[in-house]
């Protein structure tokens, strides 16, 4: 087990753990401020895709300023480990609350949904899709407020990042790997709201294939919810994303209208009071009564830049904290890859030991006196730590993906991430690490091209690359009357996206529309192969050249 700790912080208690790492309650030694430190596991730290995603999560949190989201203090990466230092929120997970208290009354459920949706709305405004809204990632404070945490698999809106999310809360389009969209977050939030109201998830398939089919085809179980909020459930769980509220803030507006109409102007106050009473019944699940740390860590650290007297994160802007994270990642890459590093200044010499990024603060109370490292500032509002995203990591395996029915079910496990949230079991999350850079295509070959009928043919194409990054393979079809010449295009070209291996074999069928004694099939790739691609031609059985 990796025992590395972030320099300047003393850990006291593990708040959650899994294959992806652990979240630890810690104290900033210089100021006594309690924080949550999210450590990337040793096994994943050696895998570039996971490290890239971990850095991206820190960068995202640095640019997301919201009282409804656990904020970033700093990101630290060294040859010995990587960690995100966050606000510690004194609260319990919604999963723990549901496990111990069962279904919530509608007003309390509406309050939980609204608070975490406001955090989600702030993310949507800066173009970020969470992709993993679920009870484990909603935290409820002792005064009845809620926060959204764990942006571990969040991406920019419109990004095609593969199949990702927690199956019980995934929108129909998430199962197909469609580009990330705020409407998928709206679906997951509504599914969580439904569980708060009823005590069970909207769909209860026995396996991934059945669950996928239910999310795609089964009727919305709105009748299980109280009548006053059924329209809200129907809208949020609509199969067609265009029929859902477009963003979280739109769902908040519909929520407030429905709640005000059904329960009167004081619904929020009553709901928050009930939540506070429920959290009070679970004092041992709060971080606040935990024991103080008993040990300290003496380790070197580096500060790349710090403005004194500032608190927590604000917008992530180029030239400010954005450059810091980039610099930290670059420094860490230089250190771990063995590339020579010129220690031109004292700060650079320190950077050889540790790369540290601190988000620049925005509004809020003044920070404690700045130590020789980035210092978190206590918040005047209830705060909470982000947990680790639980998840068996899988990626789509193309047309032959396992499972029955449409859409295809994700397959090909590439790693497991699972975290037990304080007070409750974890829910599996499906996620895909960021893809590596595009490789060099070493060889393209048409290994087989044969006629299978009067107007049909099949071709087998092989591609070899020097890396596992994404490539595009384009197959075209031509007919003509002269050997050695392509002739005329026959129908549209076909393009296939592949990644995750260094060798690919495609078998492609085609029905020819044009007459011609010769058929040809050229294949090219992006990135282009050194020889430009491969082509094979055949003489059809319909022609007699005597």
Brief synopsis:
This protein has helices at residues 42-45, 48-62, 94-101, 106-125, 182-198, 208-217, 230-236, 248-263, 267-280, 321-337, 346-351; strands at residues 9-18, 21-28, 34-40, 72-78, 81-87, 92-93, 128-129, 138-140, 146-148, 155-156, 355-358, 391-395, 411-417, 441-451, 456-465, 471-475, 478-480, 488-489, 494-498, 503-511, 518-526, 534-539. The chain has 546 residues and is α+β, with helices and mostly antiparallel strands. β21 (518-526) and β22 (534-539) form a beta hairpin.
Q: Which descriptors would you attach to this protein?
A:
546 residues; alpha+beta; Phosphorylase Kinase, domain 1; Transferase(Phosphotransferase), domain 1; 3 domains; 6-stranded antiparallel sheet; 25% helix
Uncertain runs:
290-435
Share of residues in strands: 15-25%
- What is the 3D shape? globular
Q: What would the average pLDDT be, to the nearest integer? A: 74
CATH topology term of the largest domain: Transferase(Phosphotransferase), domain 1
